[in-house]
Structure formats: C-alpha cells, structure tokens
Design brief:
Layout lengths: L1 H23 L3 H6 L6 H12 L2 H15 L4 H30 L4 H9 L2 H34 L3 H48 L6 H11 L12 H13 L5 H9 L6 H24 L1 H4 L5 E2 L4 E2 L4 H9 L2 H35 L8 H25 L4 H25 L5 H21 L7 H22 L4
Antiparallel strand pairs: 1-2
Helix pairs in contact: 1-8, 1-15, 3-8, 3-11, 3-12, 3-15, 4-7, 4-12, 4-15, 5-10, 5-11, 5-12, 6-7, 6-17, 7-8, 7-14, 7-15, 7-16, 7-17, 8-12, 8-15, 8-16, 10-19, 11-15, 15-16, 17-18, 17-19, 18-19
Length: 477
C-alpha cells in the first residue's frame, strides 16, 4: 500500500514541477535552455540525474557486477572524476561563454555557428534524433523490467505509465520544469541509494562489506581483484564509455548552456561530482552483490532466455523490506524520468530549432514552442515502440547510442571550443568517422555486448586524431 501513496505523491511533485515551468515558458529559449538562468544547485542536479538512469541501476550495475564483482567500482570512480568533475572543470565555462556569444541553444547550432556550415546543423540534428531514440528506449526497458519484477505490473502498462507521466510534465514546462523536477528526483535518488546499499549489506546472506568480499572471493577470486585480472580491460572500456561519453552527449553539455553565469560553475562542479560519486558507487556496489544472491542469470518469461537486466529487480524484490523497495522504486523512477526528459528535450529541439526554424517554416515563438511539444510527444512514442520490441539487452542499446552520438560530436565539440585551427573539413570528417565506426563495427560483430563498449570508445577517440590532422591539411574556410 505504501508504494501507491508514494507514487501518487511523486506524480503530484512532477505535475507541480510542470506547472511551475509552464508559467516560465514563453519562448524557445525558455523551453530549451531555461533562458540561461538556471542556478548552480539545479544545474548540478540536472547534470547528475540526466547522467544516471534505469540503464545504470537495472542494466549496467546488474550485468557488470555479476560478471566482474568489485572491479566494477572503477566505473563509478571514472564517472565521478572524468564524467563529472573534469567535464565541468574543462568544458563548462568555455561552453557557457561561447554558446552565449554565438547564440547557440543546441549542439547542432553550436557546431553550425562555430564551423560556419549550415549543412552541418542538419546532419547533427539528424544524428541526434535518430541515435538518441535507442538510448531512450533502453531507459524505458530498464524501468519497465523493474515494474514487472517488483510490482508485478505488466511490462506494457509500466511502459505507458512512465511515458505518459514524462510527457505531461515535460510538455508543460520544458527545461524549467525539467530542472526543478531533476532537483527533486536527485534528492530521492540520494536517499534511495543509501537505503538500498544499507539493507542489502545488512541482509543475512551478506552481513556487512567484509563478509561480502569474503563471499565473492569464495565464489570467484577474480571478483575481489581490484587491479588487473580477468575482465579488467573490459571494465576500463566501460569506464571510458560511460565517463568520456558525457563530454560529447548533447543532453549533458546542454546543462552548461543553461547555467546562470560563470560564478555558478564552481559550486555546481563540486555538487555534481559528489552526486555522481554517491549514485555510481551505490549502484555498482549493489551490482557486485548479485553473485551472492544468484547462481545463474534469471530467465526472462517472455523471451524464455537468460536476461541480466532482471538481476537487480529480482534481488530487490526478494531481499529488502517492502517499504524500502518502494523507496528504491522511486529512486529508479526518478533516475529514469530525469534522463528521459532531457533526451526528449534535446531530440525535439534538434528537429525544431536546428531544422524547421532554420528553414523558415516556423517563424513565431508560439508555433516553435508548440512544435517542440509535439515533437517531444513523437520522440516518446518512437522510444516506447522500440522498447516494446525488446530488440536487445539494455547494455547494448546504451553502448550503441553513446558510441554513435558522442563519437560524432566529442572531437568537433572540444576542438570547436579550444582550437582556432579546427575547420569544417576536419570537424565533418571527425563526425562521419565516429558515426561510421559505431555503426559499421556494431553490425560487423552483430551487436555483441562484449565488443560494443570497445567499439564505442574507439568511435570517440579516433576522431580526436582525425579532426586536427584533416584540419591541418585542408584550407580553413
């Protein structure tokens, strides 16, 4: 019964956020970047809650923890240091200054203005809209598995419920609603993570962290090897994928566009990094406990084959008190909805702002905001459709999406900020290279989950060499 009252209260808070955002949303700038007037706390929590979703708690933490044990904590450290702290330190100030100077509200607008190429805007908008759909679908899948395993709510109904709630508060208030909702969701995530770790470690099957390490060592000595050993290279690829990837993901760097001023960046950096450390360590530590509770990967009753995405949901439904499960449910719900709203916002703005407005199809702010809302709904529907098909495991969907999008934008974005020598030839070559590496090799290896992280990391790193080399050998335009 507790869960229903908590969900009702949560829905009320999300609707409240949407209504508050609605009265502040009169223009495209308001809807897309909060009119560049978002303070450090809201910006930091918006970054952190967008970073972590059901993909982490249901897909990544369970599968990686089951395969590698405590070594998975390296990913958490990478997320906090490289994915959050260094991202804010290196990118935030320069991004805020340059996007304001160029009047860029989206990643495609920035790349188009920086490299003086209108066609680049259209290509970037296309990449964002196409390749963020699988990521959004993976979030829906993770959340729906949780509903299905813990609360016995059918996958379809869970999917439609979450899509509907996200639609309402996002369409009402745009970025202002998202930022306020993210702050509320972030507080829920912090509380939920502490409770989840505490009750699982206190369970008689584990009985403390020291016993956990002993049990894991008995099951498989490699589970407690912190450095080197079996699977360490896979962990490093996953760490770089989920940490460096944030530097080129439009929904992440958008938070730097929207922050109020340069003075807000320093406190936001530390708040965001602390948030990332708490959430990531809690998630991967939980994932590392799965070998103690499971002798094999659970069977998906629909697909009739082992599905690692069911590890965490089934563990929580069986080994923690019901009221704690209810709070953890809100944790996963909060993490997922914050990510979903940011993905939808970035994708809808890519088509509206970077394509339709640029072509002169939409001239008034009223029409532009209406179109943003309509395309947000379209994006949500596409994501739900893919999630219903259950095309592959969550980890694979996320790796493909991050590899394609961050591989396409990371190098052009960074060189666009810090190098005057980088030109459109180098940037465009880098974008195409990163995209092709992900697509071609994913197909070549039949979307093998074991190879996708390495493929995605290569799609990010190789363009970092391509962009300056091609720029140096071609005439600056």
């Amino acid at each position: 019964m507790v869960i229903y009252w908590l969900v009702i209260f949560f829905v009320f808070l999300m609707l409240f956020s949407g209504i508050c955002g609605y009265f502040k949303t009169k223009s495209v700038d308001d809807f897309v970047i909060g009119n560049r007037n978002v303070g450090p706390w809201l910006s930091a929590f918006a970054y952190g809650t967008t970073y972590f979703s059901a993909v982490l708690f249901i897909g990544y933490a369970g599968k990686i923890g089951y395969n590698f044990g405590l070594k998975s904590l390296w990913i958490a450290i990478g997320n906090a240091v490289l994915g959050s702290f260094l991202a804010w330190k290196v990118l935030a100030k320069k991004t805020r200054e340059m996007t304001a100077k160029l009047n860029a509200r989206t990643m495609p607008e920035f790349l188009s203005a920086r490299y003086n190429c209108r066609a680049y805007k259209y290509l970037s908008a296309f990449i964002i809209f196409i390749f963020l759909v699988p990521y959004s679908a993976s979030v829906y899948m993770g959340l729906s598995y949780f509903f299905e395993s813990v609360f016995k709510i059918p996958y379809l109904y869970a999917l439609l419920l979450m899509a509907g709630l996200t639609t309402v508060y996002l369409l009402l208030g745009g970025y202002n609603a998202v930022a306020l909702a993210d702050f509320i969701q972030g507080l829920i995530m912090i509380g939920g993570v502490f409770l989840m770790v505490y009750f699982l470690l206190s369970n008689q099957e584990i009985n403390g962290f020291i016993n956990l390490t002993n049990k894991l060592r008995d099951i498989n000595p490699s589970y407690t090897e912190i450095w080197g050993g079996k699977g360490f290279s896979s962990i490093m690829f996953l760490m770089f994928l989920t940490s460096l990837g944030t530097w080129g993901m439009p929904q992440m760097v958008q938070k730097f566009y929207a922050i109020k001023d340069v003075n807000s960046i320093k406190p936001a950096t530390y708040i965001s990094s602390a948030f990332a450390l708490i959430i990531a360590v809690g998630a991967y530590l939980t994932g590392s406990m799965t070998p103690v509770f499971f002798k094999g990967i659970p069977i998906d009753p629909v697909l009739m084959k082992p599905n690692p995405d069911l590890l965490i949901p089934q563990m929580l439904s069986s080994y923690v008190p019901e009221w704690v499960t209810a709070l953890i449910f809100l944790l996963v719900l909060s993490a997922s909805m914050s990510t979903l709203s940011s993905l939808v916002l970035v994708s809808s703005s890519a088509v509206t702002v970077d394509f339709l407005v640029d072509l002169g199809v939409l001239k008034s702010d009223k029409k532009q905001v209406f179109t943003l809302r309509f395309l947000s709904l379209v994006f949500i529907c596409l994501s739900v459709y893919i999630a219903l098909k259950k095309p592959t495991i969550i980890l694979s969907l996320m790796a493909i999406s991050w590899g394609a999008v961050s591989g396409a934008f990371l190098a052009p974005y960074i060189y666009g900020l810090f190098s005057k020598k980088a030109n459109i030839n180098g940037a465009l070559t880098g974008t195409i290279t990163g995209l092709l590496i992900t697509v071609v090799f994913s197909l070549r290896y039949n979307f093998d989950p074991a190879k996708l992280p390495a493929i995605s990391v290569m799609s990010m790193l190789i363009p970092m060499i391509i962009v300056p080399v091609v720029s140096s050998f071609t005439k600056k335009e």
